[in-house]
Amino acid sequence: MHFTTTALSALLLALGVSAAQAGATTEVGYATLVGAPITFSELADGAVIDGLLTSGGVQFGERFDGQELAVAKAPRPGAIAQDWFDDLSFGAPLAGLTLLPGAIGANLGVYHYGDTDGAAIFGIGPQNSDGSDPSGFGALSARFASPVSALGFQLRDADGGAITLQLYRADGSLIETVDLSGRTDGRYAFARNDGVADIAGFSLTHRDSYYGVSLDNLLLTSAAVPEPAAGLLFIPGLLTLAALRRRAR
Ligand SMILES: [Ca+2]
Ligand SMILES: [Ca+2]
Ligand SMILES: [Ca+2]
Predict the structure, then answer these.
(1) C-alpha span between 120 and 117 (Å, rounded)
(2) What is the pLDDT of residues 109-142, one digit of tens each?
(3) What are phi and psi of 14, to 5 degrees?
(4) Ligand nearest to the CA of 101
(5) Phi, psi angle pair for 36, to nearest 5°
(6) Domains identified in the chain and CATH numbers
(7) CA gap 142, 203 in Å, rounded
(8) What tens digit of pLDDT does each residue of 53-106 get?
(9) Cα of 99 to ligand 2 centre, how many Å?
(10) CA nearest to 55, candidates 135, 153, 127
């Protein structure tokens, strides 16, 4: 089998390009991020926040101008009933990434977990016809004062349901949709692969029937460019190998 170096390079280049497009961010350890997290410790347990919330210099609300607020219905595991969730999958943020609050009583809420991490915020979802509490079932979006290259956060009450984090630039364009489905409570962090500080905000939506999902300890920072994925690391090695083979002929 004759594989010329040129053909091999082209193939590897194609592989490299597709791998780079697979994700605009890389998951990194929360502890590797430097900075002070937003703890929401100033918020009172049980508070319902109408209008935009500003905490730690970051604005929090329901969605961005241009995103349509829809209702997603998902079966409640092990029950006939289904739950209703805020859904932001229609429309897209407009340039400027302008944050909007939800309707009165359907924007954001606060729950104090009674542990060292204390208060966390959640989106309030649509009112289910069965009268169940919509706290934690809503969308939660954040707009940063200035764009960052990395962010970390704590998810609370994550029970393995579908969770989606969408990262946006200030011009409203989507950087990446990060699938957090199946994550349990914990701290997670993501950094831009190319180190560019263009993450200006995010939307967090989910389908988690058990008390929804809450957000705490949001940490916005710049991080070192993450190590390339393992698949990319061996490509220079292969190219060298191909060059050596060619020389041996
Ligand atoms: Ca907290
Ligand atoms: Ca809402
Ligand atoms: Ca939950």
Answers:
(1) 8
(2) 999 999 999 999 999 999 999 999 999 999 999 9
(3) -60, -45
(4) 2
(5) -100, 125
(6) 1-22+229-249 (no CATH), 25-227 (2.60.120)
(7) 7
(8) 999 999 999 999 999 999 999 988 888 889 999 999 999 999 999 999 999 999
(9) 13
(10) 153
* Beta bridge mates, 112: 119
- Angle (CA) 93-162-99 rounded to 5° is 25
Q: How far apart are CA 26 and CA 229, in angstroms?
A: 8
Kindly give, in sequence order, each residue whose CB lies less than 8 Å from that of residue 173, ignoring residues fewer than 6 positions away: none
On whether the CB atoms of residues 88 and 205 are closer than 8 A, the answer is yes
Is the pTM value of this prediction over 0.85?
A: no
Give the DSSP H/E element, type plus range, for residue 238. Answer: helix 235-248
Distance 191 CA to ligand 1 centre (A): 22
CA 193 to ligand 1 center in whole angstroms: 28
**Cα-to-centroid distance, 199 and ligand 2 (Å):** 23
Q: Which ligand places an atom closest to the C-alpha of 209?
A: 3
The CA 122 to ligand 2 mean position distance, Å, reads 9
